[in-house]
Amino acid sequence: xxxxxxxxxxxxxxxxxxxxxxxxxxxxxxxxxxxxxxxxxxxxxxxxxxxxxxxxxxxxxxxxxxxxxxxxxxxxxxxxxxxxxxxxxxxxxxxxxxxxxxxxxxxxxxxxxxxxxxxxxxxxxxxxxxxxxxxxxxxxxxxxxxxxxxxxxxxxxxxxxxxxxxxxxxxxxxxxxxxxxxxxxxxxxxxxxxxxxxxxxxxxxxxxxxxxxxxxxx
Length: 218
Prior knowledge:
eleven-stranded mixed sheet; Aminopeptidase; globular
């Protein structure tokens, strides 16, 4: 889970730095000193030994502050937080790329305009600066009702995130994601976190649950 948490924090760090927000890495947590954009936490714990007070003193600790408790071990309720959601970290050993084909015809997102369309389909707002790094890749079909997903490399693994099915079958999307990841970043284990139907689809496609996480918001 440590690698998965670090990769997730790398995504948050890239987004916040693209917006000129002051971020900090430490052994216990990644943090941003000013309020993160909507949909992103102000802190991601990187160790189960992280202490609440030490983390909160490095963030804008007010209404709207959020902490991703990567190991689901913190109790932030006494500090005025409530649980926003709980999810499960998932992992899959590095898939083999040889001979693999996808069911869906995937296309890499290349331009800010394409990324804007992709973001709208997902219901998120991804900063275009991520297109400038080889550590972030976005895939879709070019259709308004089509599926999509993102891959990000960091912490020695590749994270799968922002998965949406559109009009496609969710298990098929996850199965194809594994193939595309093997071709894009060969030799890397895959990680991520999901809940609900996405978690079940990922497990059917070959991922394994490796532990819980919890997101708190004040």
